[in-house]
Amino acid sequence: MGFPMAxxxxxxGFKVNGFDLYPNKDAEKNGxxxxxxVADACSDVDYxxxxxxxxxxxxxxxxxxxxxxxxxKKGTMVMDVSTVTPMLA
Length: 89
Hints:
Layout (H helix, E strand, L loop, with lengths): L1 H10 L4 E3 L13 E3 L3 H5 L4 E4 L4 H9 L4 H4 L5 E4 L9
Parallel strand pairs: 1-2, 3-4
């Protein structure tokens, strides 16, 4: 779900940084700036969108030492569209 969303944003003129543990080989062809870490993806952006398959992925992406909350600048908007439990959301 994340790759099509990111591709559509890039096709509509937004700068998109993308990080995935299993990178999509077509990401750069679709205008996505592929980066090496969560921190690289969100350190200098206005919006972060996560689309992850499980609760534990959201927890680590958000709360690890180099995760979104530690790396994003103050005022960054974060939207999670992951497949997770309502309680985590």
